[in-house]
Amino acid sequence: LPGYGDSPPAEMVVTAQGRRTFLDHVLQELGMQRPVLVSPSMSGRFALPFLLAHGDRLAGFVPIAPVGTRDYTAEQYRGVQTPTLILYGDHDTGLALQALQNLQHLPEHRVAVLPGAGHACYLDKPEDFHQALLGFLSQLK
């Protein structure tokens, strides 16, 4: 992600609006129409502003213990109609539970907890992760 890790700082992504615009540009450049947005950890800073502004442009949303969930109100989440799979590992007792507490206000959500997995549950339990993800995808219209 721009501005994270070893990537150079990017002025565009300093604000939530800038991060939303950045993600919008990425999806447009890739020619994606109604994608399912999978958002682990730090990518929540990009995905959540996009979801709240343009959730109708997504076929689905899969937050995996994303950061930034406290930045929005329960009322803002209630306005999103995007089908959502809240996914996390049961050993991620910090960020995952905080994200769940906030994201559970999304009206079209379901929750999948991966036993024995930590914050990067997709790395800890890849087979279980893919099974949960494919199950969710198969139910989307």
Keywords:
ABHEA protein; 4 strands; 141 residues; four-stranded parallel sheet; alpha/beta
Question: What can you tell me about this protein's structure?
Answer:
This is ABHEA protein. It is found in: Cytoplasm. Keywords: Cytoplasm. InterPro entries: AB_hydrolase_fold. There is one protein chain. Helix 3 links the parallel strand 2 and strand 3. The radius of gyration is 14 Å and the shape is globular. By secondary structure, it is α/β, with parallel strands linked by helices. The chain has a single domain, classed as Rossmann fold (3-Layer(aba) Sandwich), CATH 3.40.50. Helix 1 crosses helix 2. Strands 1-2-3-4 form a four-stranded parallel sheet, with helices on both faces. The chain has six helices and four strands.
Topology:
Blueprint: H1 16-29, E1 36-40, H2 44-54, E2 60-64, H3 74-78, E3 84-89, H4 95-103, E4 109-114, H5 121-124, H6 126-138
Parallel strand pairs: 1-2, 2-3, 3-4
Helix pairs in contact: 1-2
User: How far from one another are the termini?
Assistant: 29 Å
Query: Any idea what the CATH architecture is?
Result: 3-Layer(aba) Sandwich
CATH topology term: Rossmann fold
Number of strands: 4
| SS element count, helices | 6
Question: What is the CATH class name?
Answer: Alpha Beta
Helix content: 25-40%
The dominant shape is: globular
Give the name of the CATH superfamily: Alpha/Beta hydrolase fold, catalytic domain
The total tally of domains equals 1
Strand content: 15-25%
Largest sheet: 4 strands, parallel
Q: What's the Cα radius of gyration?
A: 14 Å
Run of helices and strands: HEHEHEHEHH
Structural class: alpha/beta
Subcellular location: Cytoplasm
Organism: Polioptila caerulea (Blue-grey gnatcatcher)
Keywords: Cytoplasm
InterPro entries: AB_hydrolase_fold
